[in-house]
């Protein structure tokens, strides 16, 4: 409602502090999470202006003015904390502690000392110390490491979302968000507004809300509800006492769990959603809703017992009790996310098959969404009964942005690659939920890795008084260290790495380990797995190997030949790193045509490029310089001229050899037909592979590969598979075979003449 000065009767009780959360979106689309506690404190009467006195002169219901001595003046004030990390529960405890401390006369440690201690001395949770236990006088707060998941970071409370809306309204709200409707959340609890709005935006993954998003909007800025575009806005319920929302806005009351939708939008019901996926989601949410209600009841009972008698709160102390509650909460949060993630993967399955890669030189409109994605083909692959839903969803800004992010390199590549794997696993497993999509390693750590930090000591500063009886201005002299002046200046910005090294994502490592465990059960499969991993390791060193070549194109062609050899051996690749690094180098060294060839090889062998690999491919094809049409035509003409010249040279050589050998041929009766054919046969070039030499070369190759070094098989016994085994080392024997063939022909001529 804003900052106000109010006049109260002296007998009126002071309201309790109100905790609220909010989210600030920066110009770079990064989020800053805020937590604040709002309270009232006495306002000195002598500081009132005449205008304020006139406005505050209150009257009783009979219209008679009240005596001034029976009134007190109060002003509302807020203590706010901003962070890039949504530790809302910890922030609430810390802010409430500061509020209570500010009204203590002559505290042992000042408010300023606690603030500087919390902001500058408390370490951030990490893998080595996943939980920080902080002592504050006779209270404590904890900081826990956020789960390392491929999903975007958010300040959502999925338990609050499910508990507040219930399963049916959760589906309805999700439908409104997926079709980008104007949504207004309202409640008298400001912290619930942010929790529910953040949960809704997070559960839409892999989509990201592209329109205005204000989870806690001040009433003075409520004009945003008249914007001619979709939005998600949360306001205090007192908004309806002063204004009337526009007709096209869908209003969601979080206090009464009701949703109002205009008659023009009455077709937006849960029946629009794909029936099978929606039925599965609703069943999962119903069971989770019962778990959440049971957990809330048990947690409230434990808190009441601990408040009445802290020493008899069971065998568990406050630390163990909080650890246990945290594990249960995180388990419920992950299960709710899992249910919605399966739903989104089910309705978007096989969408990657309808992406249109860029296969030619870029033209105007090549980055248009209709050029990047086959909308009609994707629509035809869906059930006709739900085409209305897919039409509404595919015409949204977030779906268009999703196609663009999926087609090119972006800061969301890792999360989108994870969603690609989710669609494949859901499609393979069907409705089975045996294999979890969200496998969070170390999400529920034990308290053995907890770091305990004691309360700050009183500063040895003389002549400086402590905090006053109200939360006034902070005394900078009481800060033991000076904090940063602005948090918003250190927001990190995404910049694609210029390094040619494409590393495996954590999800790819997990998938490779999962596949290796399965293949280790069979010796043959395990051997192929090790060979495929060896090839993958070689490709990881390809950037350094390429730098040693003067001709980068030649090095990339060698790598492509090795990649084809791996494909011919049908070795299982642990991931897409081999293809990804080669495509990345194609973009770095200007080889777009080779990148196109690699992509078609992937499709030929049944490998679907994920978001990371596909982004590097389109980057290489789009940003590299392609050969112009004139140069390509001149290259074709050059090849034709060279081919004709080679044919003429071979024909001229054959005619000259025939004219020189026929007159000298022996006329004796003893000359055989075989010797005559050898005489008429042209001289063999020592370095050329002719049709007459190829069978002998293959036979010699087959003899080398036999166990005894000899073979009695004829030319006709050479199979296609044996022919394909000819290696570069064997081809190096061609000149020597040519020399042996020429010497053998000369000996036959001499023997024929002698006869």
From TrEMBL:
Residues 1-415 form the UDENN domain. GO terms for biological process: regulation of Rab protein signal transduction. It holds the Pfam family DENN. One of its GO terms (cellular component) is cytoplasmic vesicle. Residues 706-730 have a biased composition (Polar residues). PPR repeats lie at residues 575-609. InterPro entries: cDENN_dom, dDENN_dom, DENN_C, DENN_Domain_GEFs, PPR_rpt, TPR-like_helical_dom_sf, Tripartite_DENN, uDENN_dom. Gene3D superfamilies: 3.30.450.200, 3.40.50.11500, Tetratricopeptide repeat domain. One of its GO terms (molecular function) is guanyl-nucleotide exchange factor activity. It comes from the Eukaryota. Residues 655-685, 698-755 are annotated as: Disordered. Residues 744-755 have a biased composition (Basic residues). This is Putative calmodulin-binding protein crag. It comes from Amblyomma sculptum (Tick). The lineage of its organism: Eukaryota, Metazoa, Ecdysozoa, Arthropoda, Chelicerata.
């Amino acid at each position: 409602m804003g900052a106000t000065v109010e006049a109260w009767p002296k007998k009126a009780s002071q309201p309790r502090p109100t905790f609220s959360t909010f989210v600030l979106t920066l110009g770079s689309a990064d989020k800053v999470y805020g937590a604040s506690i709002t309270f009232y404190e006495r306002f000195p009467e002598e500081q009132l202006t005449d205008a304020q006195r006139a406005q505050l002169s209150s009257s009783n219901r009979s219209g008679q003015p009240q005596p001034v001595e029976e009134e007190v003046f109060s002003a509302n004030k807020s203590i706010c904390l901003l962070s890039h990390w949504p530790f809302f529960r910890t922030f609430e405890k810390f802010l409430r502690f500061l509020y209570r401390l500010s009204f203590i006369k002559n505290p042992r440690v000042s408010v300023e000392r606690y603030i500087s201690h919390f902001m500058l001395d408390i370490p951030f949770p990490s893998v080595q110390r996943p939980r920080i236990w902080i002592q504050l006088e006779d209270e404590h707060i904890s900081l826990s490491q956020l789960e390392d998941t491929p999903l975007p970071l958010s300040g959502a409370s999925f338990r609050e979302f499910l508990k507040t809306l219930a399963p049916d309204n959760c589906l309805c709200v999700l439908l409104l968000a997926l079709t980008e409707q104007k949504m207004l959340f309202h409640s008298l609890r400001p912290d619930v507004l942010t929790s529910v709005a953040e949960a809704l935006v997070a559960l839409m993954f892999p989509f990201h809300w592209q329109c205005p998003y204000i989870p806690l909007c001040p009433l003075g800025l409520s004009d945003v509800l008249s914007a001619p575009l979709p939005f998600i806005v949360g306001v205090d319920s007192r908004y309806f006492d002063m204004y009337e929302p526009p007709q096209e806005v869908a209003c969601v009351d979080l206090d009464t769990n009701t949703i109002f939708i205009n008659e023009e939008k009455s077709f937006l019901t849960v029946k629009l959603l794909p029936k099978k996926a929606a039925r599965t989601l609703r069943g999962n949410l119903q069971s989770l809703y019962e778990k959440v209600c049971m957990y809330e009841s048990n947690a409230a009972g434990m808190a009441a017992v601990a408040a009445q008698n802290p020493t008899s709160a069971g065998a568990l102390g406050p630390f163990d009790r909080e650890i246990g509650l945290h594990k249960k909460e995180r388990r419920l949060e992950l299960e709710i996310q899992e249910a919605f993630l399966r739903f989104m993967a089910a309705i978007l399955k096989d969408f990657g098959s309808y992406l249109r890669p860029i296969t030619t030189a870029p033209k105007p409109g090549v980055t248009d969404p209709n050029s990047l994605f086959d909308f009609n083909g994707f629509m035809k692959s869906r059930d006709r009964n739900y085409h209305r839903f897919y039409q509404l969803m595919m015409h949204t800004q977030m779906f268009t942005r999703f196609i663009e992010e999926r087609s090119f390199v972006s800061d969301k590549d890792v999360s989108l690659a994870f969603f690609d794997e989710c669609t494949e696993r859901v499609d393979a497993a069907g409705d089975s939920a045996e294999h979890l999509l969200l496998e969070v390693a170390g999400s529920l750590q034990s308290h053995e890795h907890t770091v305990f930090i004691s309360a700050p000591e009183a500063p040895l500063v003389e002549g400086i008084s402590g905090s006053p009886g109200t939360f006034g201005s902070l005394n900078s002299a009481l800060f033991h260290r000076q904090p940063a002046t602005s948090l918003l200046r250190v927001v990190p910005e995404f910049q694609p790495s210029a390094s040619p090294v494409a590393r495996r994502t954590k999800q790819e490592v997990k998938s490779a380990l999962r596949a290796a465990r399965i293949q280790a059960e069979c010796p043959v499969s395990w051997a192929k797995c090790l060979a495929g991993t060896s090839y993958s390791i070689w490709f990881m060193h390809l950037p350094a190997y390429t730098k040693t070549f003067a001709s980068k194109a030649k090095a990339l062609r060698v790598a492509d030949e090795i990649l084809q050899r791996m494909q011919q051996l049908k070795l299982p690749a642990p991931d897409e790193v081999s293809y990804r690094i080669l495509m990345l180098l194609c973009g770095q060294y200007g080889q777009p045509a080779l990148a196109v060839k690699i992509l078609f090889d992937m499709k030929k062998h049944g490998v679907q490029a994920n978001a990371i690999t596909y982004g590097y491919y389109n980057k290489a094809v789009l940003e590299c310089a392609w050969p112009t049409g004139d140069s390509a035509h001149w290259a074709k003409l050059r090849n034709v001229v060279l081919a004709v010249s080679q044919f003429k040279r071979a024909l001229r050589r054959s005619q000259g050899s025939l004219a020189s050998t026929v007159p000298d041929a022996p006329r004796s009766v003893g000359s055989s037909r075989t010797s005559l054919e050898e005489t008429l046969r042209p001289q063999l070039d020592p370095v050329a592979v002719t049709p007459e030499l190829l069978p002998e070369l293959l036979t010699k190759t087959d003899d080398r590969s036999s166990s005894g070094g000899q073979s009695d098989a004829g030319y006709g016994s050479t199979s296609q598979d044996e022919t394909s085994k000819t290696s570069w080392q064997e081809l190096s024997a061609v000149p020597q075979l040519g020399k042996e063939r020429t010497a053998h022909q000369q000996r036959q001529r001499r023997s024929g003449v002698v006869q």
